[in-house]
Structure formats: structure tokens, C-alpha cells
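Sample entry (434 residues):
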Amino acid sequence: MSTNVEIMKTKAERAFADRFAAVSAALPARVMQPASREAAMAAFDKLGLPHRRIEAWKYTDLRNALGGVGEPAIGADAPVSRDALESALGPLAAIDADRAVFVNGVLDASLSTLPALEGVVVGNIAGDADYDDAIASEAVVALNKAFVTDGLSVTVESGVTVEKPLMIVSVRAGGDDLLVTTRHDISLGDNAALTLIETAVSIGGTLGQANNVMTVSVGHGARLEQLKIGAREEITDLATWRIHLGAECAYRAFQFIPGAPLARNQVFVTFEGEGSELDFASAVLGNGGDHIDSTIVVDHRAPGCTSRELFKGVLDGHARGVCQGKVIVQREAQKTDGKQMAQALLLSENCEFDSKPELEIYADDVACGHGSTSAEVDPELVFYCRSRGIPKDVAIVLLTESFVAEAIEKITDERIREIVTGMAREWLAANHAE
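Predicted structure, serialized as C-alpha cells:
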């Protein structure tokens, strides 16, 4: 005799189902057909929110961490002026970049300045996008497919170099907690080049959750630099990057997360052509009850490729930082050179750093390694600074700034690098207290 046991749904899981039932008819079919949304929601219903018994989520238990769900955003409920946007962007407004501005999950043409170059096609996503069949195992991706309202499609044709960076800005406005769900598709042809920046801002105290999926395809010999500068507001941020690298291309990525009550940035990189390079760096700053999870899986499926991953975390208060890095080397990926390093600076006895580096190697001609460290600020260095007249708090800020600088220096654009350094310095000065 068989017995069917119904798994009890959490408040958040029930809320996602209720929210979907309430807004599904209003979600744009241009972006995702209703049948596809229903299938994605059915997949989520089967999977449920990730929890600690799932190995990849053992340190970030969404089933317990998510207490509720914001109102799904379907477009601008409140007008956003250009002045308000500039103010919300703060130092990022000084970056000379084209902008794609999404207000409450929908592209706002009046605030956007999209590139108008021959060989560059930029517009809204349309049609049932390929989610790499990820919804079968990734609940957050299934939710993205069910609730997605809009996103950016960027195609850079072969041989085209886009000189000015393209900044994707997600704006939330209206005053209530919102669930903002977007998806972006980026494709670079052979020998193309682009710098992409992603950030989020809130206007009028609008908080809530964000769920974004970014799919990137980099062609033969192409160059892409992708930067994420996290929101300075307290939003729950669930982000998934799915990166496909062709042959002899170069992909540089950097993520700066200046605090978040709950954040999961998961990156999946697949080497599909030989001789390509990946350079990924992350700088995370956490305080109070922040929980920031940085997870990257690099799958080497072609020979002669190089991957580098660097994580730098500064944690204070009761903050928790998670760094999971996994490098897979398939049997055919001979001559792979893969290295990863995770380092955390702990400024409080109450903070926590969980690091899980992994190597899964099936080839026999490779050079791979990983490392992980965590430590307090060196008291001798603090004493040295104080002996030269530098106050203790200032000394700690300077030392922690130099610690995260190794990751920030990965940014190739000097102006952007200076802005991010200034944001890190401002955060450290404001968030560390003896």
C-alpha cells in the first residue's frame, strides 16, 4: 500500500502561488506565453523554495529565510523623473554610459538612452526565451519564468566594438514592497566587444524582492566585461547569470554587493570553445543581519581554457557571507588552467563566513587549485597606523579598503573603478563601529 504525503508549504511558497493566481492574466504574453508561465509555476510548486537539504543551497535556506512576497510589479505605478533617477543613482550617475532603465520591471523609453550603432540591436525581450531547461532544478529560475515582466535583448554583431558601456538600471518606485522580475539576453558575435553594467535603485522607499536572470552568449574571439553593482537599499536580491563562452574569447565579470538583508548571486559559466578566458571577481560588504551568498559553477567542456575566480568579503555585526565555488573539468577539457580563491575579513566576533570550494576533475592534464582564508584585521597593522596618528576606526577602514581593493582592481575602466572604490570606502566608514 502506498501513501501520498503532502509536503507542508511555507508562507512564502503559498504567497507565490496566490500572487501568481492574482496577476497571471495581467502578465505580458509578449514576454512569456501563459502556458509557459503555468508550466514554470507548476515546476516551482513541485520543487518548492530551496532549502538547506539541497547541497547547493545548504548555507542559504530560502524556505526559512523568505517570510513573505512583495506585490508583483507589472509596470510603473508612479512616474519617475529624470532628476529622481539621477539622485537615486548617486555616484553611478557620473558614469558615461548608455542606459536601459526599467521602472517596476518594464523598460521606460523616456528614461533610457539606448545605443544607436550599426551592428547593435537593443530592445525588449520577446517570445518564450530559452531558460536552458533550468526550471527543472532551479526554483528561483522557475519563478523568474512565471513572473517575468520585461527585459533587455542585446545583440552585438560580429566585429562590432561598442565603445560606450551599456548600463541596465532597475528602478523600483511606488512606496510598497514589490516583487520585480526581469530577464536579459546578451549575445556577442565573433570578435565583438561590449562593457555591460547592471545596478538597481529604489525611489520613495520602495523595497521588496528582485529576481533577475541574465543569459549571455560570447562568440569566437569576442570580449565582454560584465559588472554588477548591487543596490544600496535593503532588498532581497536573487540573481542568476548563465554564461556560454565560445572559442578564444575573453569574459571578465565583477560583482560589488554593498550589503543586503538577503542576496543570492549564482553564476553558471560553460566553456564551449577552446582557448577562452574567464576572470571573475566579487567584493562583498556585510553588516547587521546581512546574508550574502556568492555561488559560481564553472564547467570546462573545451580544452586549453583558463578560469580565475576571486572572492573578497568584509563582514561585521551578525552578517553572514557565503562563497561557493565549483570548477568542473570534463574529460575532453585537457590543458585546463583553473584557480579560485575566497578570502574574508571578519570585523566582529558574531559574523560568519561559510566557504565551500570544489574541484571536480575528469581530465588528466590540468593545472587546478583552490584556497580559502578568513581572518581578523591584523592588530599590528592597526597599531602601526595609530602610531602614525591615524585614529583606530580610520585605520580599520583603510586596511579593509586595501583588502577589497584586489577585487575592485579587476575593473578595467579607471573611472568606474574609482567610483566603486569610493562606494566601498563610504560603506566601510558608515558601517563599521567599535
